[in-house]
Design goal:
1 helix; elongated; disordered N terminus; Immunoglobulin-like; 586 residues; mainly beta; Jelly Rolls
Amino acid sequence: MITRYLSILFLFSSLTSLAQFQEDFSESLTNPHPWQGDSSYFRINADKQLQSNGPAASGKIFLQTYSNALAGASWSFWLNLNFESSTSNYTKVFLAASSTNLLDPQLEAYYLKIGGLSGSKDGIDLYYQKGTLQTLVAKGKEGHAAGNPVTLRIKVLRDHLDKWEVYADTLGGENFQLESTGTYPAIFASEAFGFLCVHSSTRRNNFYFDDLKIDGGFVDLEAPQLVSQVYQREQNGWLLFFNEALNPLSVPVFQIEENAFSFPFQWITEKSLLIQDTSSFIEEGTAWVAQLTGIRDRAGNMKIETMQLIKPKMLQKRDVVINELLFNPFSYGVDFIELYNVSPWYVECNGTKIKNQSGEEVLLPPMLMEPGVYLILTKDSNAVMDFYPLSVAGAFMPINLPVLPDDEGEVIWLNEANDSIDFFHYNQSMHHPLLESKEGVSLERVNARDPSQWTNNWQSASTSSGGATPGYANSQAESGEVGGWLSIEPHSISPGTDGYRNYANIRYALPKPGGSLRMDIFSLQGNWICSLQPSGPSDARGMCTWNGTDASLQPVSTGLYLVVAEFFHPDGEHLKIKDTISVLLR
């Protein structure tokens, strides 16, 4: 199997989900929308307007309500400043703020400053604030916030490309004229919309607000997650499924071994796309360690994810074999059939069936078998694991098998065309003659490459293994039948520094010196965790260690992991060996 590194770059622009908000102050400061802050310094007057009622001393007062609108949003409101604005008397209207405290020294926000200069220079200016830094985004027309009183109706738009537009009617109506435009890229999670009044002692109750409307998108800060990928043989490509909608203007660019490739693609739904390998660049049966970078959702969030991109080959005879059979289980136990992928390829097994000696057959669900992987077919995995506690839990496929007689029978594995992939005629006489009881003891295949019908190719599972080895190497398999081996000690580790099983020693033996070895850790779901450094690429024997961390040196989650060693030799020989290791937390 050839494993390479593939980077997939998606270029996205920003879109978001929509929300709506309206407030005409016809009820109270708690209904229908709760307003908080200096609520004792604001009131709803007889004209059903929000009016300031600040303290006798000069100061700053604010009132805010929850709003998450920022991306692709619009705001409109009416205000009246019943005075001539100055550096002592003006207002800030916070369109979006990262905190409910509009005086927070760490506040990130976009706000309109209305007034605050003097005379004919006062305007409607849009600012971005981060902490104490104030950045002018769009300068309004001078004089449009001058006069006594100042009455305005203002509308602000922000599109998905970070462009701002400010409109105003200086008579307070709805004849909006463009005041200013500007572009600023900062985006954050908004928590509030609010009014802030800077007042002197004589202007403390002369700020009026009304007719607030907010439409637009809240900022989604969750990056898209790749849910699954499925190879589509008819299209020679992969369907990638994500957990949320992506931007339909996205253009995937592939980076393979420092070379850029543009593969054809098409959107299937807003959450899935098909990538097509029309030039058959990727060899059938192989897997690529693929890094997906720059993936963005409609809100512009990016996700970097490492995965296996698999291009399986179609199932052929001797790729996958019947490797172990339990046909005479213990009382309260169940039968099982173990399949084993002896090939170095990823194999697609669709439309296959298991058939018995009476012609009874069951259809197996579509499945993808990795090189060196074992698959247990049984109706009750718990019943198998109860009797054989060393069973690999992730290797089971629940299926109602056809009847397998306790004395003699047949197991036939058929492909979609009803051709035999493997056939095993079993008999209880094939068990070791010294067995006191054949109940609960499986027949194991000695050599996966030798024919199934060679009687000598089957032996009773060893008593030391508990009578069966579901999901891992057969106890009676020929030593070195695959040309090499892995030895992991211990098979369970607990990451840390307490000195108890903090790492595993992984020893290996290869068929011959002079080749190259790659060793990786994967989750049972096929996600790449990290690479390990062998003790020398030309050594036939060696060792490496794993301490239970990923490629970023972060501890992995509790669970079972695959150790995958791949050997390549210049003469063309290729070997892949797998084993499991469990990570425990204490």
